[in-house]
Amino acid sequence: MMIYVVEDDNNIRKLVDYALRKEGYEVMGFAMAAPFWTAMERQHPQLILLDIMLPGEDGLSILKRVRASAATARIPVIMLTAKGSEYDKVMGLDLGADDYVAKPFGMLELMSRIRAVLRRTEDAKEPDTFTWGEIVLCPAKHTVTVGGEAVALTYKEYELLALLLKSNGNVLTRDALLEQIWGYTFDGETRTVDVHIRKLRQKLGSAGRYIETVKGVGYKLGGGEEDV
User: Fold this and answer.
1) What is the 3-class SS of the chain, one letter each residue?
2) pLDDT in tens, 60-84
3) Order of strands, edge to edge, in the sheet holding 172-173?
4) How far apart are CA 72 and CA 45, in angstroms?
5) How far apart, in whole angstroms, are the C-alpha atoms of residue 29 and residue 138?
6) What contacts 93, CB < 8 A, 6 or more positions away?
7) CA distances (Å), 109 to each of 90, 102, 124, 151, in order?
8) Strand pairing report for 77-81 and 135-138
9) Are 12 and 56 in contact (CB under 8 A)?
10) Strands across the sheet containing 26-30
11) Does the pTM of the predicted model rise above 0.70?
12) Who contacts 58 (Cβ-Cβ below 8 Å, separation ≥6)?
């Protein structure tokens, strides 16, 4: 089980890393946001330990982006911070943090909090696969198949497909897709969504017909009878 630790204090990060590995977890540590996001493109962890005070992009901004993405929204996050004010705690929880541990903290307490969050996540975990026609998406393996054949998708294409599958046939507007996949700060035009949808349809082959255009609104998954 992989845990990402985003903490700029080297001593704290190494101590947490040691304690987690001793408990049998795999660990990757990051001192700032950029390498964390690079790692997220390759592998999603089962839990994120996230400091608020970081150089550059702070922890609350990272949390907001994690929760805004369909592919990462369900990853549990525990905030680690020296800040003890009620405001910072409420901000983190309101943005979707699963728990909050103030520094200095004991390792036994931290391990207990991690186990509790992982238990809750396991109890409420999403289905093993999402299917629509011949399309099968497996979140745990981060794979997509069409008719049993693997389909190679980019990170954003995968997120688009995952969000469409999870919407269960409901219409998703272009603005909603931009917000949830590219984040609130994305300043591109909605044309970006159209370009990614077109590429996704092409890669899905005949199953691309299931992605239907709702004129003037956005996209949904349907029966594939309409021209797309």
Assistant:
1) CEEEEECCCHHHHHHHHHHHHHCCCEEEEECCHHHHHHHHHHCCCCEEEEECCCCCCCHHHHHHHHHHCCCCCCCCEEEEECCCCHHHHHHHHHCCCCEEEECCCCHHHHHHHHHHHHHHHHHCCCCCCEEECCEEEECCCCEEEECCEECCCCHHHHHHHHHHHHCCCCCEEHHHHHHHHHCCCCCCCCHHHHHHHHHHHHHHHHHHHHEEEECCCEEEECCCCCCC
2) 999 999 988 877 888 999 998 776 6
3) 172-173, 218-221, 211-214
4) 9
5) 26
6) 100
7) 20, 11, 23, 43
8) unpaired
9) no
10) 26-30, 2-6, 47-51, 77-81, 99-102
11) no
12) 52
**Whole-number Cα distances in Å, 88 to 102, 136, 158:** 10, 40, 33
Give tens-digit pLDDT for 121-149.
775 556 778 999 999 999 878 899 999 99
Bridge partners of 219, per DSSP, are 172, 213
Distance CA 163, CA 82 (A): 35
Cα 79 from Cα 179, distance rounded (Å): 23
On the question of a cis peptide bond just before residue 139, with omega within 30 degrees of 0, the verdict is no
Residue whose structure tokens are 């998406």? 137
Q: Which residues, other chains included, contact 168 with Cβ-Cβ below 8 Å and sequence gap of 6+?
A: 221
User: Greatest CA span in the chain, whole angstroms?
Assistant: 60
Question: Which structure tokens are listed for 3?
Answer: 């845990």
